[in-house]
């Protein structure tokens, strides 16, 4: 029995030595070879996928790339809100004088005025007093032959009179188109020379007439004038109507 067991053991050792010498020391024996079949089991099942490894560290930035082509211009954005005004800047130097402009057309100024005085004593009552001493009548709007001012420019006028009173009481009226507008009365004081005056603003249309006359039947006709005493009548245009030029 010992001899049979020793022989079997020696046979196994020789067989193992033979298999070892026959195999390439760097090549693993194929589990399907006869030398491996005596101790290899059935192939196992594939294992499950392992857990993914952790992310690696970020790499270093690469070199800067070349500039790309310019894209198309986008639509205009909405206007922003107005900002707070900034502080005032320093004052600049005066500029150079500009070129002289062309001469414009002169404006047309309408004029109408007169100033006259009395030369005869005790004018007739109830008719226009004829003031024949002319101080100013450049536009000839006052008619010395009738004693009337005739309006040529529609507008607003100022009229005034200053009369010397002597020998009798005076009551005069300023008329416009046959209608008395204002009255002036002065009572004469004996051995004295007095004054009577009046003034008024009137609106006149072209063709309207204005004059001064003694009011009544002649009892109040003390209007007087001589070489040292004057009785005067005057009027002038303040401003014309806007629609008349």
UniProtKB/TrEMBL annotation:
Family matches, as InterPro entries: C1q_dom (IPR001073), Collagen (IPR008160), Collagen/C1q_domain (IPR050392), Tumour_necrosis_fac-like_dom (IPR008983)
| Location of the protein in the cell | Secreted
Q: Where is the composition biased (Basic and acidic residues)?
A: 54-70
**Which keywords fit this entry according to its UniProt record?**
Collagen, Hydroxylation, Secreted, Signal
Highest rank taxon of the organism: Eukaryota
UniProt keyword Signal, yes or no? yes
Enumerate the residue ranges of region (Disordered): 24-107
Signal peptide positions are 1-22
**Which residue range or ranges hold the C1q domain?**
107-244
Q: Does DNA-binding count among this protein's keywords?
A: no
Show the GO cellular component annotation of the record: collagen trimer; extracellular region
* Name the UniProt record assigns to this protein: ADIPO protein
